[in-house]
Amino acid sequence: LVQLEMAELTEEVVAQLHQEDSNIKREDEERAPPDAADAAEQKDAAAGDGNPPATAVERHISIQTKLEGLESLVDMNGAGRKSCPLCPEEKFKACYSHKLRRHLQNLHWKVYVEFEGHKMCICHLPCRNLKPSLGVDQAPGRHIAHYHCVVCSVTIARKTDMVSHLKRHVNKGETEASYSSSSSVVLNEPAPPGRTCEIMKELGTDVQLLPNHTTPQKSDTYFSRKMKSNRQLVFCSLAVLAEERNPLECLDAFGATGIMGLQWAKHLRNAVRVTITDISDTCVKMIKENCELNNIRVDGGQRGPRGPDRVSAEAETTPIATVEVAKMDANVIMHLRSFDYIHLDPFGTAVNYLDAAFRNIRNLGIISVTSTDTGSLYAKSPNVTLRHYGCHIVRTEYYKELAARMLVASVCRAAARCNKGIEVLLTVALEHFVLVVVRVLRGPSQADESAKKLRKLMHCQWCEARVFLKLGNMVDDTLPCDCHGSLPGKTAVQLGPLWSGPLFNTGFLRKMLSAAVRHSMDDIQPLVKTLICESEGTTLKSLVHGSSVLTSQAECGVVFKTLQSGHEARLADLTGKRKSGEESGNVLKKLKPDASLEHPPFYYSIHRHSIRGMNMPKLNKFLQYLMEAGFRVSRTHFDPTGVRTDATLQQFKSVLTKYSVPTFTKAATSTQTSVSSDKPA
């Protein structure tokens, strides 16, 4: 009983003392000034765990720029054993400085992942635990080696996965600067693209590029440096049209960064009225910024200050040209307005925009089409080719020219649906794109003449002989080879329908070469010279830049009346409507087709038809041998080893065999002498 009474008294005393302490503390807080309370709170916060606020962005210690930064995490000059800053104690025990330095170099620094100057070393700290697996007992304290992302601070185990993770950040436009630009403000969204833009200059035109400009699937403002030759060829074709008539209404239907339209406006000035459209808001904003970067006024843009300030501002920065920038679908704007020059360069195939392009194109206008779906054009995906272009093709030695003729056939069918014909001015097929430039000829008769040039192609899969089927001709006995008789099974296939007409216009190419020289485009001048020789069927030709070349009239069976004088220029109806009366006359005069003006269709690869065990002659010497045999010969831009000639495949092989030398000449002669000695006298 005495013990129970003592326990009850003790509990009462403790409760009374606790109540007195709480009353005293409440009285002290009421007497203390407000500043003292705030100071106490700040002192308690400072005396806490020492972590920064939640909004501060800290970089993990495994992310360094130099090896010295990783070694500076530990006092290497001090005495005694030291622990690794990136490994737990149970994985790497404390050791001396020389051994720790070797450990940091070989284990952590040697396998780093680099991103914008930052090295993400491998980390063994318990930042990322093993995932629990069913039925398996895991050792306590075991952790996975991992990397810390410099952008989003996520932990990733494998090096290859970290590289792929960083590529996704680049494609989205997210960089390390987007997250560490401000450590005291919570970033709800990445930094604006303008902070990480790259300035690129091409043909005197500056454009801003986003970090993910090379990935069309991730970026609206796609830009490819490999398409520089394409942009210069399109520019030269527009410059030639601007010499014939001006001002021209030009449309860059897929602006992206707007570099092509800006180059037109900056170099051709008042001769063109450029309209750049794109469906993306990001692209439209980027195009307007690039216009300001090149001192080009945006039509419908913001007005400057008024009064004397405006006069001084105009005197300092007078715009050199005016460009109209619109956010509109390409099909919509081509249905609403008429243009003299239209360039189509979508991502992939352009067949979805051909009908709208021929809808309102003016008479004698030019349409340039760039198609980058090389998988379907180069016979890698035949089902996609049949779906997009309505053609059946197989892989051949002349697959690039086959792709060009297939694209021209699609353009011709789209023009014929609008009662228009075409004349092919330029066709280029390189590794990354196929470019076709055509002139539009209005009228049903022109459409009929163009449609007659769409024919099927007979191709031998054994010897690769080929010939276009004539209108109303039977399939039997069409190919010049006899593979179908000497070999079992079917060797010939029908390809197409394809464009069977010429792919080049010599007069137009000469004018393009003059424009390239005038605007200092040294990169495409060799290509244009090759195209001129290919269109003429010659190997060496003196290229004259002068008025005599520019006034050439007979071009591929069609006579063009060039608008040179002011009186003739006034006769041209820029609205696309026909003029009546004898004064205007016929702008186009159809001539009798002359086969001598057209270049030979297709080409042969000298490597494909080389004879086994024979050393074939050099390509230039072989061209000379073919010319001496009486054939038209030229190099081709489609294939560096290709020869464009009007000789048949049998004639081509006979000349090649005649001038080829056996590989083992001495062995052959010794064999012949031994055989002759064995014969009886």
Automatic annotation (TrEMBL):
| Reaction catalysis annotation | guanosine(27) in tRNA(Tyr) + 2 S-adenosyl-L-methionine = N(2)-dimethylguanosine(27) in tRNA(Tyr) + 2 S-adenosyl-L-homocysteine + 2 H(+)
UniProt xrefs under Pfam families:
TRM
The family database entries (InterPro entries) matched by this protein are listed as: SAM-dependent_MTases_sf, Trm1, tRNA_met_Trm1_C, Znf_C2H2_type
The record places domain C2H2-type at 147-174
- GO BP terms: tRNA N2-guanine methylation
State which residue ranges cross the membrane.
none
From the UniProt entry, list the residue stretches annotated as the region Disordered.
17-55
Domain of life of the source: Eukaryota
Report the GO terms under cellular component: nucleolus
Q: Where is the composition biased (Basic and acidic residues)?
A: 18-33
Tell me the classification of the organism that encodes this protein.
Eukaryota, Metazoa, Chordata, Craniata, Vertebrata
Compartmental location: Nucleus, Nucleolus
Gene3D superfamilies, per this entry? N2,N2-dimethylguanosine tRNA methyltransferase, C-terminal domain, Vaccinia Virus protein VP39
Q: Which organism is it from?
A: Nothobranchius korthausae
Q: Which UniProt keywords apply?
A: Isopeptide bond, Metal-binding, Methyltransferase, Nucleus, Phosphoprotein, RNA-binding, S-adenosyl-L-methionine, Transferase, tRNA processing, tRNA-binding, Ubl conjugation, Zinc, Zinc-finger
Q: Which CDD domains match?
A: AdoMet_MTases (cd02440)
* GO molecular function terms attached to this record: tRNA (guanine) methyltransferase activity; tRNA binding; zinc ion binding
Name of the protein described by the UniProt record:
tRNA (guanine(27)-N(2))-dimethyltransferase
